[in-house]
Amino acid sequence: MRIEIEPGVRLFVDIEGEGLVPEGAGMREKPTLLLLHGGPGFDHSSFKPAFSALADVAQIVYYDHRGHGRSDPRPASEWTLDTWADDVVRLCDALGIVKPIVLGQSFGGFVAQRYLERHPEHPGKVILSSTSHHTGLERKIKGFARRAPAPVRDAVREKVRAFWTEPTPLSFAAYWEACRDLYTATPQTDPAAAQRTLLKLDILLHFVRGEKQEMRLLPGLSRARCPVLVMVGEDDPVCPIEDALEIAAALPSRCMQLARFPGCGHGVWRDDPRAAFERLRRFILE
User: Fold this and answer.
1) Domain boundaries in the chain?
2) What are phi and psi of 235, to 5 degrees?
3) Which pLDDT tens digit goes with each residue over 58-79?
4) pTM for the full model?
5) Do residues 186 and 79 lie in contact, with contact meaning Cβ atoms separated by under 8 Å?
């Protein structure tokens, strides 16, 4: 379905699981888990079907960020972290969601960090998953080179640097071909997953060549008021563990929880779904 969040702006939304569960003589309300997908330029499909594992403890709301996927196209002037962060509040208002649990994966974690800064009283809880607070180019280069086979290591370094400094359709194609399989620590077994993803390359290139270059999210994290779980794969090449540790250190100590996953790359549920969903389940139910 498409939900209008302000006049003329509709987001694609999909909801899994009931919000109210019969219990005795009444109805028990489950928490709402709002999923902010990665990218930018991608859609929510990477969360499916894995996050169905949490449908028994939360009502899950998937959506495509403004301009992305099946949401309405929007002008480039609206492709900003401030707009995407404010859309979390707009969508919750439209759906009547109070105190959501907001999970931001990768780029979705950028949005979630800006949302924490701009709307610290809004969330019930926040999960920052496999994300960063800045570009951190040299860390990315080292991370991908460490995971690449020795014969192609230098070529991988060059392609990572080329894309993140001069994003074009050609530099992205070369980067994605060289690095896509290095994001995770274990081979992914669903060959059709990439075909299901809707990519808006213009949004990706616009953000990487623009706002991403000067992105500085750490200062705003001090405004957090709710529990925040930082999840990181220790072998993540694109959002390295050093970034996650700096995010954790910037959060108020009373709010922060850190979960490190050895042997995992980007999106820890892809490499170790049992451990990842067990940790998410505990955080949701706390």
Assistant:
1) 2-134+191-285, 136-183
2) -110, 25
3) 999 999 999 999 999 999 999 9
4) 0.98
5) no
